[in-house]
Amino acid sequence: NYQHYFILCISPVLVPAAYVLMQLSGRITRSVFRFATVILLCAASLPLLPLYRDNYAPRYPSAYTKARDYLLSETVSDQPILVWGSRSAIYVMSERYAPTAYFNERPLYLFPGEIRGAQWEELLNDLQNDPPQVIIYTHDSALPFIEETSSGCEISAGADYTVPVYKYFCENYRYETTINSGFRDAWEVYRRR
After folding, report:
1. Phi-psi label, residue 152: left if phi above 0, alpha if psi -120 to 50, beta otherwise
2. What is the pLDDT of residues 73-131, one digit of tens each?
């Protein structure tokens, strides 16, 4: 989602175009000059229109809203859920709670030198003591990829101390549905077996 950086391309295109228009300004009338400038700006903006349409057009409801709606209709409010990733707003929106202090697991991945096996062990103990009804897997870039197979699920490579948590995940949860299917922010829902 860094398409807005393409806006920076407009200036390098406009500088030579402005030079050409300035050279022509002595030969054309002021109204023609203004019209040519407007046409040039519009033409320079045309390549950006699909980016705005595809990436910034409102999509109602959003993945967050769909996740909230799913959780409100498919879970019990006094039992925990786990949003696997850094989308912690879903807890507030759905009025649900996480079974662990690691309600945002992303720091467990981003700081492996500081947060090691003890924290992963604590996370696993929390999940075993108060298992979440569902886990919403949000595909954060820091998270290993989870692939659903006929025998359960498989996890892409991760550090050794993460294996017990993912093993617990794969053994105790099954794929149920995808929220916001067809979009970049499609999230899988795994329900406790």
Report:
1. left
2. 999 999 999 998 888 899 999 999 999 998 888 777 766 565 577 888 899 999 999 99
Q: What is the DSSP track for 110-156? A: H-TTTS-HHHHHHHHHHHHHS--SEEEE---TTSPPEEEETTEEEE-
Question: Pairing state of beta strands 82-84 and 134-137?
Answer: parallel
Alpha-carbon distances of 90 from 23, 85, 86, 140, rounded to whole Å = 57, 11, 10, 14
Can you read off the two tokens belonging to residue 173? 């949860």
Q: Write phi, then psi, for 90 (nearest 5 degrees).
A: -60, -35
Is 189 buried (19+), middle (13-18) or exposed (0-12) by CB count in 10 A?
Answer: buried
The span from the CA of 8 to the CA of 15, in Å, is 12
pTM equals: 0.65
Q: Report how far residue 95's alpha carbon sits from residue 71's, in angstroms, rounded to the nearest whole number.
A: 9
Provide the 3-class DSSP secondary structure of residue 175: strand
Q: Which amino acid is at 16?
A: P
